[in-house]
Write a structure and sequence with these properties.
alpha/beta, 6-stranded mixed beta sheet, single chain, 20 helices, about 15% strand
Length: about 650
């Protein structure tokens, strides 16, 4: 199912639902005929299962896309008066980001009003979550990836229901309007208000240094966190603590499960008649559901709740909660409910780490049984478990971190080994005790302890982040085929039971990935619609400021500082990994006619007679057709690539008009 969903989102065209159903039916009939002819062959049965599962994932992904419908915002609109309710406040580099449930937009009919938008607010914010506001804003479609392999934020926004992004001109002001007619919207805003109040209370009670971090862990509201702390957590490999995901829901569910299980065991009459783990598991499901709602119910939190629910449901049904079968059921449930999450780093990294940990601990248990060990769980076992969990999780998620973020924290393993015992033995219990002691007025005492423990975690993060470097990077985008090879190697290593065969599968996949990566085309130059030019040199990518555009830089290069300002001079010459790159004004370029060049970039069209065989691009091409990338194949041949639009519902061809009001 995962492969089928991934295949659908990787297509370069939008297939019709009827065509998909017909094709899948033909394939399933062929599988049925093959099983009748070779019924006893294990390879045939395995192939049939793979084909049927892929067909189910493909149809599920297509059904979700058709249910979502076309995007509401396909061109820049504004400035306009926008009215709506603030449903979330997120931190940003240029200011806070307000997520608004839109009520009305000036000049737009009710049928064309976007439902959810995210606006950057740079001035002082005087309103809170749940408040009805009016803002002068410019609204744009979610940005589409310009660079091949860059993260498609537009697809994520499409399936999360985010119709547009933009910025506020001035500041948003509170307004007065009656309650929403939609009951779901009223509940959503009530939850948002409660969540914001909880975050503010935790921030004040946990202390000035780690109050924002504590608020983020308890409510998912990260707007109180300093940007320096967020960067330190990201560069130290501890950013997973910020997302309300499997770790947080697992801690909450485990605390509730054991508290109720031990509490019910005290009642002798009930303990002798009812398995106490079953009502404890049901209570854990309810507790994790409430925590999911209170923390904002983001996509990653919903996925974590589904996984936790499958685990606790297995306990209710007297099944093993930690097995590959439970792991597979959790993945199937997530794919059915959120097939688009298959392409997100959160889905891939969480399931990769979970599957690898299940296999590791199953092998550990078998090894103990073979040695005849008693399996006593002392302090040494707990410490070894934390170390094994950190090491296995880091190894399993490293390929996905390199693919999606082009970086791996060099001290991430050490940071996790130092921070996770604090989170497990101090932060989580103190947060749970703060919740339990809330009716007695003692929660602030435990929240202060909670904040003190998180101060230690922040100290570890800043130490591991060092001077703020982004971490280890290979300097080039990992090709998709390389990631698929590494996934196949990780899967084979998990399914094998022999240690030597596991090592052979892993090492073989790594060697094949290196060879495929070396043979894949590499990006040499990218000219973004923002006007900046990115050139691959022997020292990595260099950012050259050239023209003034209205687009955004690729996410891959968002944090790359400007190396040379070519816009303030006639031209620049830089040596790339494919030869000389000339960029500048047409007059200066004509004076460089005697130079040999592989790529020529100009502000206006220029004759190609001076540089035979070179790749040319001018600013009029960028303004008309979007960004351009130049790639070099193994044979040193250069080719150009432009982003395509209109082929999928989440990549419409965007207009460039601005509606003035």
């Amino acid at each position: 199912m995962c492969a089928g969903a991934a295949l659908y989102y990787s297509l370069t065209f939008e297939p019709a639902l009827g065509t998909l159903l017909t094709g899948c039916l033909v394939v399933l009939l062929a599988v049925w005929w093959g099983l009748r002819r070779w019924p006893l062959r294990p390879s045939a049965r395995m192939a049939a299962l793979l084909v049927c599962g892929s067909a189910c994932g493909l149809i599920c992904a297509k059904a979700h896309t058709d249910f979502r419908g076309p995007p509401y915002v396909t061109s820049t609109v504004g400035p306009v008066m926008l009215e709506g309710w603030i449903s979330d406040i997120e931190p940003g580099q240029n200011g806070v980001r307000l997520v608004l449930d839109v009520h009305a937009v000036s000049g737009a009919s009710s049928a064309t009003v976007p439902r959810l938008v995210r606006l950057t607010h740079t001035n002082r914010l005087a309103v809170e979550t749940g408040r009805f506001v009016r803002c002068w804003a410019v609204i744009r479609p979610p940005p589409q990836p310009e660079l091949p392999g860059d993260y498609p934020f537009n697809r994520q926004a499409y399936f999360e229901g985010l119709d547009g992004v933009g910025y506020v001109m001035g500041r948003c002001r509170g307004g007065v309007l009656g309650v929403e007619n939609d009951a779901a919207a009223r509940i959503r805003n009530r939850v948002a208000t409660t969540r914001r109040g909880l975050a503010r209370h935790v921030k004040e009670a946990a202390g000035q240094r780690a109050g924002g971090f504590a608020a983020a862990l308890t409510s998912g509201d990260r707007s109180f966190m300093p940007q320096a702390d967020m960067e330190a957590l990201r560069n130290s490999g501890l950013a997973h603590l910020l997302a309300i995901s499997g770790l947080h829901l697992g801690i909450v569910g485990t605390l509730v499960f054991f508290a109720i299980k031990r509490g019910l065991s005290i009642w002798e009459w009930l303990a002798l008649r009812v398995p106490t783990q079953k009502p404890a598991a049901a209570s854990a499901i309810a507790a994790t559901f409430l925590y999911m709602i209170l923390s904002g119910a983001s996509i990653s939190t919903q996925r974590a709740f589904i996984m936790a629910s499958v685990v606790f449901l297995a306990m209710i049904l007297d099944r093993s909660p930690f097995s590959l079968r439970t792991f597979a059921l959790a993945m199937i449930a997530v794919i059915i409910m959120q097939p688009s999450s298959v392409m997100t780093p959160g889905f891939q990294m969480s399931f990769a780490a979970t599957g690898a940990l299940i296999v590791t601990y199953e092998a550990w248990a078998r090894r103990q049984a073979e040695r005849g060990e008693s399996g006593r769980r002392g302090t040494g076992f707990v410490l070894k478990s934390l170390a094994v969990t950190s090491i296995v999780g880091a190894v399993a998620t490293a390929p996905f971190a390199l693919y999606h973020f082009d970086r791996v924290a060099p001290l991430g393993l050490a940071a996790n080994l130092l921070a996770m015992p604090i989170i497990t033995f101090l932060s989580a219990p103190s947060a749970g005790l703060a919740l339990v002691s809330l009716p007695f007025g003692l929660s602030d005492v435990f929240l202060r302890l909670f904040g003190w423990s998180l101060e230690r975690v922040l100290a570890i993060a800043h130490w591991a982040a060092g001077d703020g470097a982004a971490g280890f990077s290979v300097g080039a985008q990992m090709p998709s085929m390389v990631l698929l090879i590494l996934i196949a190697g990780l899967t084979a290593a998990c399914l094998e039971t022999n240690v030597l065969r596991r090592m052979a599968s892993g090492s073989g996949a790594c060697m094949a990935a290196v060879l495929v990566w070396a043979a894949s085309p590499a990006t040499i130059m990218h000219w973004s619609s923002s006007g900046d030019v990115y050139v691959s040199t022997d020292d990595g990518f260099q950012r050259l400021s050239f023209m003034d555009g209205e687009g955004l830089s690729p996410l891959q290069f968002a944090d790359l500082p400007t190396s040379i300002d070519c816009g303030g001079q006639d031209g620049c010459k830089i040596e790339s990994r494919a030869g000389t790159v000339l960029l500048g004004r047409t007059g200066w370029l004509k004076s460089q006619c005697q130079e040999r060049a592989a790529i020529v970039i100009s502000d206006r069209p220029i004759s190609a007679s001076c540089w035979p065989g070179a790749v040319f691009s001018d600013w009029s091409d960028i303004k008309a057709g979007g960004a351009v990338s130049v790639k070099r194949s193994v044979g040193a041949r250069l080719s150009t690539h432009r982003p395509r639009c209109g082929n999928r519902p989440w990549t419409p061809c965007l207009g460039d008009r601005e509606d003035q009001s």
